[in-house]
Amino acid sequence: MSDVLGTSTTEQNNNVVFDRIGMTFQTDAGATQAVANVSGTIPDGKFVSVIGPSGCGKSTLLDMVGGILKPTQGSVSIDGELVTGPRRDTAMVFQEDSTLHWRSVLDNVAFGLEIQGVSKVDRNDRARRMIDLVGLRGFEDHRPGQLSGGMKQRVAIARALAVEPRVLLMDEPFGALDQQTRQFIGRELLRIWERTQNRVLFITHDIQEAVYLSDEVWVMSARPSIVKEIVNIDLPRPRPEGTHALPRFRELEEHLWNLVKVEAEKTLGPGALLA
Amino acid sequence: MSTDVTILAVPKNSDRSGGKKSSALIDNVWRAVVLVAVFLIWGFLSAISDLVSSPVASFLALAEAFADGSIYRHLWSTLNAVVIGFLIAAVVGFPLGYYIGRSKFLGAVFDPIVAGAFATPRVIFFPILLQIFGVGVGAQAAMAALAAVFPIMVSTAAGVRAINPLLPKLARSLSLNPLQTVTKIYIPAMAPSLMVGIRIGFSIAFINVIIAEFFAARAGLGLLALRAYGQLDLPMMYGLITLLTLIALVGNLVLWAIEGHLRKTT
Ligand SMILES: Nc1ncnc2c1ncn2[C@@H]1O[C@H](COP(=O)(O)OP(=O)(O)OP(=O)(O)O)[C@@H](O)[C@H]1O
Ligand SMILES: [Mg+2]
């Protein structure tokens, strides 16, 4: 799967392909190699999650796919085209609050469409549907400052979904949500994704969430990071609520946990996770 | 005065959604009360002191200057200098502050320079400006521009630095063009600090024009006030003080209106 060079171009055409991508930051304090060498493919219509220890370069990887950070080594291509900058058909949800606090919720969600030149009637219509989808009906006219952290994050998710991206890049989008909302929005995300069949690159540190949502989970090593293992999530879809209780789910979860533990101990020191 | 408080307050968009009318009414009642109190104290002081003229005499002196038309030349000269000076400061200060705030390099170079210049009383340069521009509106306007440009730069740079770093990232990811990035992200995100820059810039331009007119001027409200002081024309002096306060108030009300408009449309 990670052997990019061997695959034919036709096969790559609807894929997101990482070709030995790496990123080294130059700062006053010296050089930090965040991402060492990541290769992999997100096939058309697949949902891929990335897990790995804090600071291993997950957000950096996402920024490179989103075209807002230029890799210092290797390249990413989407549908056969090299990523050289941001693309219209990708949308990002950032790890922290990125709402525009001077705009109403409705205008925030419609922002991407506004930039794409969609007419006001159409974009408000689409934005309203997305607002319903993320459970914010009734808050259309509120400002982000009047919302909780989790609600703000849902605004950002709705904004990304509203442009109906072909590639959706999400950086711990549910980090600020409580467990119930998290699962609810996760199921909604799956429903939308099953309908649109886009590619999703989803960063999380919640292993259960990764297993529940994904077709594949990429486990990243400690920094400088590589993809240490790609775990295929062979659970049937659609995945109803009881999926978490399946024996196979438990197996996958445990396997991932063991992989992550090794990497986290490299970052934090041995025994760090015993407490 | 009661307006001083609101001048410094950064606008919040989340305040008091309920009971807006009744609280605005109460605010206005209190403003009227404070205003009446000011005039009562003024009247009382004029009764017990030779250094203060009564409110009535002051207004009459001012009204006479308007009636015989002698004040317009001075009023026009002062307003001209303030507006031109402020506009120059804005045209120079906002972009410079923006770039100093955004660029690490420019920030490192200019921060200490700007901070030093910010603390220097700029009126010290007025004699030099007089040499360059001669006595007249040009020198007063240059004085105002020189004084106002630094606070505008400082607050703009601070505003740029305070921007949520994810917003430029968002702008990039949504492929905003440079114009959209400035108008749809930077300006609204920085609106509170831009307004602070405008307010402080305007008032500093105003102050410096009046001070400069004290030094050397062909016309201006400062010159007029200085003459009134010299002739011990107390009613005219206090009339001019009232006029200057009114100008400051009107200027701030205009800024207020702009602010409200900005909040609604962005
Ligand atoms: N702009 C930058 N300049 C310099 N170093 C950076 C920059 N951005 C990230 N880094 C460094 O790169 C490494 C990876 O950062 P990144 O944010 O990608 O980690 P992450 O895996 O997303 O972590 P977390 O799970 O905590 O969000 C870190 O060591 C970080 O210090
Ligand atoms: Mg991160």
> What's the domain count of chain B?
2
Question: What does the overall shape of chain B look like?
Answer: globular
Global outline of chain A: globular
Mean pLDDT of chain A: 88
Q: If you average the pLDDT of chain B, what whole number results?
A: 87
Low-pLDDT segments, ≥5 res of chain A: 1-10
Low-confidence stretches of chain B: 1-19
Q: Please report the total strand number of chain B as a whole number.
A: 0
If you had to describe this structure to a student in words, what would you say it looks like?
The complex is a heterodimer of chains A (275) and B (266). Chain A has 275 residues and is α/β, with parallel strands linked by helices. Chain A has helices at 9-12, 58-65, 105-109, 111-115, 120-133, 149-162, 179-196, 207-213, 247-268; strands at residues 16-27, 30-42, 47-51, 73-78, 81-82, 90-93, 167-171, 199-203, 216-220, 225-232. Chain A has a ten-stranded mixed beta sheet with strand order 5-4-1-2-10-9-3-8-7-6, with helices on both faces. In chain A, α5 (120-133) crosses α6. With 266 residues, chain B is an all-alpha fold. Chain B has two domains: 3-48; 55-265, MetI-like (MetI-like fold, Orthogonal Bundle), CATH 1.10.3720.10. The A-B interface holds A 63, 66-68, 85-88, 90-92, 94, 96-98, 100-103, 111-112, 115, 143, 145-146 and B 13-14, 164, 166-167, 169-170, 172-176, 180, 184-185, 188-189, 191, 263, 266. The complex binds adenosine-5'-triphosphate and magnesium ion (MG). Residues 58-59, 95, 171 of chain A line the site of magnesium ion.
List keywords for this structure.
heterodimer; A: about 280 residues; alpha/beta; ten-stranded mixed beta sheet; 9 helices; globular; B: about 270 residues; mainly alpha; MetI-like fold; 2 domains; 11 helices; about 80% helix; binds adenosine-5'-triphosphate; binds magnesium ion
